[in-house]
Protein backbone atom coordinates (compact mmCIF):
# COMPACT_ATOMS: atom_id res chain seq x y z
CA UNK A 1 0.00 0.00 0.00
CA UNK A 2 1.31 3.42 -0.95
CA UNK A 3 2.03 5.98 1.78
CA UNK A 4 1.93 9.07 -0.41
CA UNK A 5 -0.54 11.26 -2.24
CA UNK A 6 -0.40 9.26 -5.49
CA UNK A 7 -3.20 7.06 -4.15
CA UNK A 8 -6.20 7.67 -1.92
CA UNK A 9 -5.96 6.70 1.72
CA UNK A 10 -4.36 7.66 5.00
CA UNK A 11 -0.91 9.17 5.16
CA UNK A 12 1.41 8.33 8.01
CA UNK A 13 4.74 10.04 8.68
CA UNK A 14 7.86 8.63 7.14
CA UNK A 15 11.25 8.71 8.80
CA UNK A 16 12.20 8.50 12.44
CA UNK A 17 9.53 9.36 15.00
CA UNK A 18 10.27 11.95 17.71
CA UNK A 19 11.41 10.84 21.14
CA UNK A 20 8.27 10.03 23.11
CA UNK A 21 7.36 7.77 26.00
CA UNK A 22 10.41 6.15 27.63
CA UNK A 23 12.90 7.83 25.28
CA UNK A 24 11.60 11.26 26.29
CA UNK A 25 11.53 10.26 29.97
CA UNK A 26 15.20 9.21 29.72
CA UNK A 27 16.07 12.67 28.42
CA UNK A 28 14.12 14.29 31.24
CA UNK A 29 15.82 12.08 33.82
CA UNK A 30 19.23 13.10 32.47
CA UNK A 31 18.20 16.76 32.73
CA UNK A 32 16.87 16.47 36.30
CA UNK A 33 20.01 14.59 37.39
CA UNK A 34 22.24 17.18 35.76
CA UNK A 35 20.63 20.16 37.49
CA UNK A 36 19.81 18.62 40.87
CA UNK A 37 23.08 16.76 41.40
CA UNK A 38 21.17 13.61 42.37
CA UNK A 39 22.65 10.23 41.33
CA UNK A 40 20.95 8.23 38.57
CA UNK A 41 19.07 5.85 40.86
CA UNK A 42 17.64 8.77 42.83
CA UNK A 43 15.73 10.33 39.89
CA UNK A 44 12.73 8.18 39.04
CA UNK A 45 9.84 8.39 36.59
CA UNK A 46 6.65 9.02 38.55
CA UNK A 47 4.48 6.45 36.77
CA UNK A 48 5.94 3.09 35.71
CA UNK A 49 4.32 -0.30 35.13
CA UNK A 50 6.28 -1.75 38.06
CA UNK A 51 6.84 0.59 40.97
CA UNK A 52 10.32 0.59 42.47
CA UNK A 53 10.51 0.00 46.22
CA UNK A 54 10.17 3.10 48.35
CA UNK A 55 13.41 4.69 49.39
CA UNK A 56 14.27 5.22 53.06
CA UNK A 57 12.93 8.40 54.58
CA UNK A 58 16.47 9.75 55.06
CA UNK A 59 17.17 9.57 51.28
CA UNK A 60 16.97 12.56 48.95
CA UNK A 61 15.38 11.70 45.63
CA UNK A 62 13.12 13.03 42.88
CA UNK A 63 10.03 11.68 41.13
CA UNK A 64 9.19 13.35 37.83
CA UNK A 65 6.53 12.86 35.23
CA UNK A 66 4.90 14.32 32.16
CA UNK A 67 1.38 15.48 33.00
CA UNK A 68 0.35 17.20 29.75
CA UNK A 69 1.52 17.67 26.18
CA UNK A 70 -0.17 20.29 24.05
CA UNK A 71 0.70 21.63 20.64
CA UNK A 72 0.36 25.05 19.11
CA UNK A 73 -2.48 23.90 16.84
CA UNK A 74 -1.02 25.66 13.80
CA UNK A 75 1.42 23.37 12.04
CA UNK A 76 3.34 24.68 9.07
CA UNK A 77 4.25 22.66 6.00
CA UNK A 78 7.81 23.42 4.93
CA UNK A 79 10.56 22.06 2.71
CA UNK A 80 8.27 20.77 -0.03
CA UNK A 81 10.13 18.57 -2.51
CA UNK A 82 8.78 16.55 -5.41
CA UNK A 83 8.28 13.58 -3.06
CA UNK A 84 7.50 14.93 0.41
CA UNK A 85 6.72 17.81 2.73
CA UNK A 86 7.65 18.42 6.35
CA UNK A 87 5.07 19.33 8.94
CA UNK A 88 6.58 21.58 11.63
CA UNK A 89 4.82 22.14 14.93
CA UNK A 90 5.70 23.12 18.48
CA UNK A 91 4.69 21.25 21.61
CA UNK A 92 4.59 22.31 25.22
CA UNK A 93 5.43 19.51 27.65
CA UNK A 94 4.18 20.06 31.19
CA UNK A 95 6.24 18.15 33.77
CA UNK A 96 6.03 17.81 37.52
CA UNK A 97 9.09 17.27 39.67
CA UNK A 98 8.68 16.20 43.29
CA UNK A 99 11.76 16.28 45.52
CA UNK A 100 11.66 13.99 48.57
CA UNK A 101 13.84 13.57 51.64
CA UNK A 102 15.44 15.54 54.44
CA UNK A 103 17.32 17.74 51.95
CA UNK A 104 14.47 17.98 49.43
CA UNK A 105 14.21 21.75 49.71
CA UNK A 106 17.93 22.16 49.07
CA UNK A 107 18.03 19.69 46.16
CA UNK A 108 14.88 21.13 44.58
CA UNK A 109 16.14 24.66 45.03
CA UNK A 110 19.40 23.72 43.30
CA UNK A 111 17.37 22.25 40.42
CA UNK A 112 15.23 25.41 40.18
CA UNK A 113 18.28 27.68 40.24
CA UNK A 114 19.95 25.52 37.59
CA UNK A 115 17.05 26.31 35.26
CA UNK A 116 18.34 29.89 35.10
CA UNK A 117 21.88 29.04 33.95
CA UNK A 118 22.41 29.54 30.20
CA UNK A 119 24.90 26.67 29.89
CA UNK A 120 22.33 24.32 31.42
CA UNK A 121 19.74 25.52 28.92
CA UNK A 122 22.22 24.89 26.11
CA UNK A 123 22.49 21.29 27.34
CA UNK A 124 18.68 21.06 27.38
CA UNK A 125 18.61 22.43 23.82
CA UNK A 126 21.03 19.66 22.79
CA UNK A 127 18.33 17.20 23.93
CA UNK A 128 15.85 18.87 21.55
CA UNK A 129 14.04 20.73 24.33
CA UNK A 130 13.90 24.30 25.61
CA UNK A 131 12.71 25.81 28.86
CA UNK A 132 9.41 27.62 28.65
CA UNK A 133 8.56 28.53 32.23
CA UNK A 134 8.13 27.03 35.68
CA UNK A 135 5.99 27.49 38.76
CA UNK A 136 6.93 28.35 42.30
CA UNK A 137 8.45 25.72 44.57
CA UNK A 138 5.67 24.35 46.81
CA UNK A 139 5.92 22.38 50.05
CA UNK A 140 3.79 19.22 49.84
CA UNK A 141 4.69 16.85 52.72
CA UNK A 142 3.55 13.28 52.04
CA UNK A 143 2.53 10.56 54.48
CA UNK A 144 4.44 7.42 53.46
CA UNK A 145 4.32 4.29 55.65
CA UNK A 146 2.81 6.33 58.49
CA UNK A 147 5.72 8.79 58.43
CA UNK A 148 5.70 12.32 57.12
CA UNK A 149 8.30 12.77 54.37
CA UNK A 150 9.44 16.21 53.29
CA UNK A 151 8.45 16.92 49.69
CA UNK A 152 8.68 19.96 47.43
CA UNK A 153 6.95 20.17 44.04
CA UNK A 154 7.26 22.36 41.00
CA UNK A 155 5.82 22.28 37.50
CA UNK A 156 8.09 22.95 34.54
CA UNK A 157 6.94 23.78 31.02
CA UNK A 158 9.30 22.66 28.27
CA UNK A 159 8.97 23.26 24.54
CA UNK A 160 10.11 21.31 21.54
CA UNK A 161 9.83 21.53 17.79
CA UNK A 162 8.61 18.42 16.02
CA UNK A 163 9.17 17.73 12.35
CA UNK A 164 7.28 14.93 10.63
CA UNK A 165 7.76 14.11 6.97
CA UNK A 166 4.78 13.05 4.88
CA UNK A 167 4.67 11.67 1.34
CA UNK A 168 2.89 14.73 -0.06
CA UNK A 169 3.93 14.94 -3.67
CA UNK A 170 3.94 18.11 -5.73
CA UNK A 171 2.04 18.51 -8.96
CA UNK A 172 4.59 18.14 -11.73
CA UNK A 173 1.97 18.32 -14.43
CA UNK A 174 -1.78 18.15 -14.71
CA UNK A 175 -3.81 16.84 -17.66
CA UNK A 176 -5.75 19.94 -18.69
CA UNK A 177 -7.62 20.53 -21.91
CA UNK A 178 -8.69 24.05 -22.91
CA UNK A 179 -11.59 24.45 -25.27
CA UNK A 180 -13.67 27.27 -26.58
CA UNK A 181 -12.65 30.64 -27.93
Description:
By secondary structure, the protein is an alpha+beta fold. The chain has a domain at 21-48 and 76-166. It has three helices and nine strands. It has helices at 21-36, 104-114, 118-126; strands at 43-45, 61-71, 76-78, 85-100, 130-134, 138-139, 142-144, 147-149, 151-166. The strands form two sheets. Strands 1, 2, 3, 4, 5, 6 and 9 form a seven-stranded mixed β-sheet that branches. The longest helix has 16 residues, at 21-36.
Quick structural gist:
With 181 residues, this protein is α+β, with helices and mostly antiparallel strands. It has 3 helices and 9 strands; from the N terminus they run αββββααβββββ. It has a domain at 21-48 and 76-166.
Entry keywords:
single chain, alpha+beta, two-stranded antiparallel ribbon, about 180 residues, elongated, 3 helices, seven-stranded mixed β-sheet, about 35% strand
Mean pLDDT: 91
User: Fraction of residues in helices?
Assistant: 10-25%
**Uncertain segments:** none
Number of strands: 9
Sum up the overall morphology in one term.
elongated
Radius of gyration: 23 Å
Biggest sheet architecture: 7 strands, mixed
Count the DSSP helices.
3
Q: What's the SSE pattern?
A: HEEEEHHEEEEE
Alpha carbon gap, first and last residue: 43 Å
Structural class: alpha+beta
Q: Strand percentage, roughly?
A: 25-35%
Secondary-structure topology with pairs:
Elements: H1 21-36, E1 43-45, E2 61-71, E3 76-78, E4 85-100, H2 104-114, H3 118-126, E5 130-134, E6 138-139, E7 142-144, E8 147-149, E9 151-166
Parallel strand pairs: 1-2
Antiparallel strand pairs: 2-4, 3-4, 4-9, 5-9, 6-9, 7-8
Helix pairs in contact: 1-2
Amino acid sequence: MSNDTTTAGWLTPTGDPPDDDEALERKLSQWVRGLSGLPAKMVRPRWTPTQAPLLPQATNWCAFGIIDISDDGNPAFKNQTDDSAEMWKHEQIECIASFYGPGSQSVGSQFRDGLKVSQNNAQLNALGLSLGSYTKFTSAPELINNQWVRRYDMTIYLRRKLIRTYGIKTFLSAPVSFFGD
